[in-house]
Automatic annotation (TrEMBL), chains A, B:
<comment type="function">
    <text>Mutarotase converts alpha-aldose to the beta-anomer. It is active on D-glucose, L-arabinose, D-xylose, D-galactose, maltose and lactose.</text>
</comment>
<comment type="similarity">
    <text>In the N-terminal section; belongs to the NAD(P)-dependent epimerase/dehydratase family.</text>
</comment>
<dbReference type="GO" id="GO:0003978">
    <property type="term" value="F:UDP-glucose 4-epimerase activity"/>
</dbReference>
<dbReference type="GO" id="GO:0006012">
    <property type="term" value="P:galactose metabolic process"/>
</dbReference>
<feature type="domain" description="NAD-dependent epimerase/dehydratase">
    <location>
        <begin position="8"/>
        <end position="279"/>
    </location>
</feature>
<comment type="subunit">
    <text>Homodimer.</text>
</comment>
<comment type="similarity">
    <text>In the C-terminal section; belongs to the aldose epimerase family.</text>
</comment>
<keyword id="KW-0520">NAD</keyword>
<dbReference type="GO" id="GO:0005829">
    <property type="term" value="C:cytosol"/>
</dbReference>
<protein>
    <recommendedName>
        <fullName>UDP-glucose 4-epimerase</fullName>
        <ecNumber>5.1.3.2</ecNumber>
    </recommendedName>
</protein>
<keyword id="KW-0119">Carbohydrate metabolism</keyword>
<keyword id="KW-0299">Galactose metabolism</keyword>
<dbReference type="InterPro" id="IPR001509">
    <property type="entry name" value="Epimerase_deHydtase"/>
</dbReference>
<comment type="pathway">
    <text>Carbohydrate metabolism; galactose metabolism.</text>
</comment>
<comment type="pathway">
    <text>Carbohydrate metabolism; hexose metabolism.</text>
</comment>
<dbReference type="InterPro" id="IPR036291">
    <property type="entry name" value="NAD(P)-bd_dom_sf"/>
</dbReference>
<keyword id="KW-0413">Isomerase</keyword>
């Protein structure tokens, strides 16, 4: 008989990152997954495919029970409305309860956040407060939170350690920063109950190697790799604008820390495993980048610790897709910093996290997803 | 005929500060008041008394219409529930609409905020986001916000200018800091619509000279003056503990900037008048203590700019009440800073704000309120 899985609620599991996290949770053999998603930026199809990939990975002769444990229970709902979260926890009270939460759902477009800040604060802050309140009500005290390297703003040093000052420069970044502060205050208020880990993502890219799940941006992709992948299937024929090639970097273009989405997602399974380990919280005030405290709160960078320039990425995607990119150097974009890379030492030491997949795998998997699903999920269901 | 008053929604007008703000709005002749309060920390009686004081101040022979304009329409409701705010704006659509909002309601106990942070974030942040969302929906873009000197934490210089870094040291302080950031982001998103002024209060004390309204704390008062006033009517016979007399201050005890509540409240009428004046926003990024921006957002200190030590306050209350206080020097309290005083220059220059009432008036009015209402509002209704 299969060992019983713990139930984890993943908010926003239908999204790009959430779907890969859900998959890794299922593949670990330790967790079953329930989610709440309003499909604001995703499709239910993603959840079905996650289950399918996980079931296909079962050993031959797996029982129906084993297969069933890989189904994702999905609530269509909005986490900025408290009662819609409450319903889930209530339903699960009778089923052994929810063990922990991975809070992934959020709005995430930096530019848009400055235009419609109220919507961003509602989806990213009110929602986080709602979630904490419901967790508290049902005595669920284990939390992993999707934070972002944007909390660092333009950091004084690179690679960036977790102790770097938090000075986000966009409204989106502030929603992530405030969520961390709120979660930390909650942990400080009851160190005997709450445990939380924030994971500060650098640049997630790529897809599961099956090519069945991946990033499916609406409109023009905001991130480089999906944009390059879509160009290779004929979209955006005008080519790639490169914002500045006169930065103080090896080839003059901006350098970022791209991390394979499967590495990133696996980091969440490691974080779930680390939550109960008291020793990681010892020095956390320092590491979290804001005042020390008595609570069990900790923040970790998830990055590869290696910088890739825009030109490196174009080259690598050219190899993966065979497509010859048209590029054009244009002026620097205000707000861009030359280099943003993670110091991944803390996550490596305490979570045993290592981003092992390389740039080639990232581009191959990105291209595999793109070429299998040239129109994303929408027309594939 | 009386000139038509603009309708101002004051959240939490039944509370200590809100009731005095409501009174000053009414006395100004320019505003009528509607409020929403859940009476978590206040009594409806306060609102009736505000109206009574304002009506008593009308010239002889004032019309019934003039008197009626001084009634405060009160919604019993909770601003952390969006629909309860929405209802008010909806009702007023037919009555010429709401012109602006003074957002006063909040939980405010520093110590408690660290114990029940979720409640503080819900009442002070979710509520602020709700309010902004409803204002936006009904196109009400004028806002004055009750901030606090706690946003400065332990400041690098004293008196504290508005440009001092914001580094709150309590969960309560973070709710005020975050509310300011959120309001500022909203102003930045639409400079042609939104205008907001945050008022950072130092230590409000005293009461309206009528002795009809004042601070009515539940349990042991957290602030010095109400505590001294209650001691003078026989409560807390154990006397006053003074936390440290070896600070680097004139008499060794901590120095704070006490401001008469009527001065503070009048500052809000000045802020309402300043909102439409474009020129005050010119240099506001700087003055707000966090990055510059294009929006019409501004923060002002409301303080007297003069420090009073604990011993100064004990002396002054002794004179006002005739009560001989028993004091005891005990050790310093962690977290206390020796001196916190406002640099009031900016509010003086741009709002024409001046805290003109002196310590003697403050203590006299505090004592007048206390001796008229030894049990506060509860047993007086
Ligand atoms: N993609 C990145 O580059 C990146 C980098 C750093 C951090 N993050 C963070 O990772 C998380 C996931 O990002 P992603 O790239 O997968 O985005 P995504 O848009 O693909 O996924 C977010 C999911 O949450 C859902 N959602 C949003 N608001 C919701 C609400 N109010 N109620 C219910 N569901 C809601 C969306 O429908 C979507 O399925 C976010 O918190 C984001 O801020 C992303
Ligand atoms: N008193 C001080 O020393 C001081 C100093 C700096 C800033 N402030 C700020 O000034 C404001 C008013 O403080 P106060 O001293 O008058 O406090 P108070 O408790 O006397 O008044 C607050 C009022 O808001 C109401 N309220 C609270 N939460 C509510 C909710 N969710 N929905 C509806 N009503 C709600 C309360 O019932 C009360 O009537 C607060 O924002 C506080 O943070 C106070």
């Amino acid at each position: 008989m299969a060992s019983p899985r713990k139930t984890v609620l993943i908010t926003g599991a239908a999204g790009y990152i959430g779907s890969h996290i859900a998959l890794c949770c299922l593949l670990s053999g330790k967790y079953s997954v329930v989610t709440i998603d309003n499909f604001h930026n995703s499709f239910p199809t993603a959840l079905e495919r996650v289950t399918k990939i996980a079931q296909d990975a079962l050993p031959a002769g797996a029982s129906d029970e084993d297969k069933k444990a890989l189904e994702i229970k999905c609530y269509r709902g909005d986490i900025s409305i408290k009662s819609e979260i409450d319903q889930i926890f209530k339903d699960y009270e009778g089923k052994g309860g929810i063990w922990g939460v991975i809070h992934v759902a959020a709005l995430k477009a930096v530019g848009e956040s400055g235009e419609i800040p109220i919507k961003y604060y509602e989806n990213n802050i009110t929602a986080t407060i709602n979630l904490l309140d419901v967790m508290d009500k049902y005595k669920v005290y284990n939390l992993v939170y999707s934070s972002s390297a944007t909390v660092y703003g333009a950091p004084p040093q690179c690679p960036i350690p977790e102790s770097s000052p938090l000075q986000p420069e966009s409204c989106y970044g502030r929603t992530k920063f405030m969520s961390e502060l709120i979660i930390k205050d909650v942990c400080d208020s009851a160190p005997d109950k709450w445990r939380a880990i924030s994971l500060r993502y650098f640049n997630p890219a790529g897809a599961h190697p099956s090519g069945q799940i991946g990033e499916d941006p609406r409109g023009r992709p905001g991130n480089l790799l999906p944009l390059l992948a879509q160009m290779a299937v004929g979209k955006f024929p005008e080519g790639l604008k490169i914002f500045g090639n006169d930065y103080d970097t090896p080839d003059g273009t901006c350098v970022r820390d791209y991390i394979h989405i499967m590495d990133l997602a696996e980091g969440h399974v490691l974080a779930l495993a680390a939550l109960p380990r008291d020793e990681i919280y010892a020095a956390q005030g320092q590491a979290a980048g804001f005042g020390s405290s008595g609570g069990k709160y900790k923040a970790y960078n998830l990055g590869k610790g290696k910088g890739m320039s825009v030109l490196n990425m174009v080259d690598a995607m050219q190899k993966a897709s065979g497509f010859k990119y048209k590029t054009e150097i244009v002026g620097r974009r205000t707000g861009d910093v030359p280099e943003l890379t993670a110091d991944p030492a803390l996550a490596e030491k305490e979570l045993e996290f290592k981003a092992k997949r390389d740039l080639e795998a990232m581009c191959r998997d990105q291209w595999n997803w793109q070429s299998n699903n040239p129109k994303g999920y929408e027309n594939q269901a």
